[in-house]
Inverse folding.
């Protein structure tokens, strides 16, 4: 059975994520990140930031609520039991800091099949409250064919 | 600038659980041992996002948090509790501002992530 591509181009409702200081600390602690920019407000301010700086992959946290509806969309049709692996790419703009409100919109970029594997690719675009694009993410999920 | 070459402390179940809370990833495959074993796994294993974040933080420390402009990873293998990782990175010849990256198990050398990073001009 060939993979359905009817969902390509589909867009999901944007989500808004309020970046909290303690959430940045909690995330940095979980990853083992010790850079004071992520823990010490005074150090972050001394470095020229308004508040604690989010670690690079904190983008996964503020993108996750926007990605869920696409990942679980029956029209996209990802079979999680057959998911093998995937990849992610990010381009970052201005750094995200505590207090930011990040709006993320997700769309289906491509769905394809090659060599018995199905590739489901999503794009996320995240902007801060000033309208700056802080992160463009490409999320590839690879699933074994049925 | 010298190349990136860092060995992390072993990933622990506690770290995986801590990351589950921090990142909101409550897939039981990553924290519920009986669930993971019933699904055919040897044990719970780290989220790919955790491994990608560990490498990403090391890269940010290496290249500078404010200079890191792009980052991409491909997930290659599972990271299990007890695995410590060797994180490496080096400039790509002929492509200024672009670096190739890898995370591999310290024991045995299995590659768990490959990736790249770019810096702002």
């Amino acid at each position: 059975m060939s993979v359905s591509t009817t969902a390509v181009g589909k867009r999901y409702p944007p989500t808004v994520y309020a970046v909290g200081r303690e959430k940045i600390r909690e995330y940095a602690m979980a990853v083992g990140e010790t850079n004071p920019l992520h823990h010490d407000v005074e150090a972050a301010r001394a470095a020229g930031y308004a508040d604690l700086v989010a670690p690079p992959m904190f983008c996964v946290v503020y993108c996750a609520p926007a990605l869920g509806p696409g990942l679980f969309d029956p029209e996209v049709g990802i079979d999680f039991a057959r998911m093998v692996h995937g990849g992610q790419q990010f381009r970052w703009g201005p750094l995200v800091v505590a207090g930011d409100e990040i709006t993320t919109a997700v769309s289906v970029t491509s769905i394809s099949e090659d060599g018995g594997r199905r590739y489901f690719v999503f794009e996320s675009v995240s902007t801060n409250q000033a309208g700056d694009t802080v992160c463009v993410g490409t999320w590839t999920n690879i699933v074994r064919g049925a | 600038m010298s190349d990136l070459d860092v060995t992390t402390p072993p990933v622990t179940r506690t770290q995986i659980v801590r990351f589950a809370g921090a990142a909101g990833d409550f897939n039981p495959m990553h924290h519920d041992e009986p669930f993971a074993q019933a699904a055919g796994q040897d044990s719970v294993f780290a989220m790919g996002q955790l491994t990608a974040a560990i490498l990403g933080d090391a890269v940010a420390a290496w290249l500078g948090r404010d200079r890191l402009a792009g980052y991409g990873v491909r997930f290659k293998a599972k990271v299990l509790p007890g695995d410590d990782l060797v994180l490496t990175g080096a400039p790509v010849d002929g492509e200024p501002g672009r670096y190739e990256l890898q995370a591999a198990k310290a024991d045995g050398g299995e590659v768990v992530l490959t990736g790249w990073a770019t810096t702002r001009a």
Observations:
- The beta strands of chain B are 4-7, 68-75, 85-91, 98-105, 111-119.
